[in-house]
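QA checklist item 7 of 12: single-chain prediction sanity check.
[x] sequence parsed
[x] length recorded as 329
[x] structure emitted
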Amino acid sequence: MGRPNNKVVNFRMPDSASPTAPSPAADLPPGVTGDAAFDVLLGRMQAKGDFPALSDSVSRIVEITSSEKGSVADLADQILRDVALTQKLLRLVNSVHFAHPGRSGVSSVSRAVILVGFNAVRNMALSVVLMEHMKDKVNTGQLKQDFLHAMLAGSLAGELCAVPHDVEDAFVGAMFQNLGRMLAGFYFPGEAAEVRRLVVAGQYASGEDGASAKTLGVSYENLGINVAKLWGMPETLLRCMRKPSGVPPPKPPDQPLERLRWTTLAASEIADVLLTAEPAQQAPRLARLAERYARTLTLTPKGVEAAILKARQKLKTLAQALRLDLTMK
């Protein structure tokens, strides 16, 4: 069986070029990427038995969903190999967010793909895979906040996306934009704590990226992008993970990729406020962000605020389905 006809194209390449997505290389030994600082970190991650397994799971899902030859059967087969992934994914699909009146419960992965879409299942699978490999720590401390940030940013990006065709791409782009921070929190907790200390102290004008580059030798952004390359993520996603700089444009960028980059950045900044700001500071800070990004996103400030409310509710639904402890300010 092929993909459903109403599929969302996965991270489309520009019309002028269609380079092949990088081949998964997560099983390569340290020293092969050409980035000495990253190779050291990669070696430390690979020394832990769960990173190769995580890399294999993500790479296989990406390979199937990035290929036009990938089918519902292929994706279902990959998911069914992991019992925990299968159970949590079906729980997500049957959650309040995806349920529809009059529709019976979904009991098979193939049916889930047909009902909610190829890329929607991809996004849920990637989210669950990340959580499952970090499950011993994901409900406690800083790693929980980092994981919730990724999920919330993804939900926000989907709600803020002005082009329905790009919603699933916006979700996964925002979720992976802070992959480096999440990986550092899990594999290098001591260094991640030092990065947070430096950020709070305001020692680097470039903030977290400057502090992480000083501490790890590689910025969080580059750490996440380099790992995503090893996982075989499409080039368009890798570019989306590179946060745009400067002032948000006064109107939506003409290039779809640039629109996605600004959407995911706005989602990430809003998620930061929702998860870290004191309650008394949230409303004014969110209002400023809504004003800052509204025109870039083809929304009004009120529209941004409405998207935030929807995303917060979606996150609660996802957290309940995943049985993830959710605490937000």
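[x] summary fact logged: The chain is about 65% helix and 0% strand.
[ ] second reviewer sign-off
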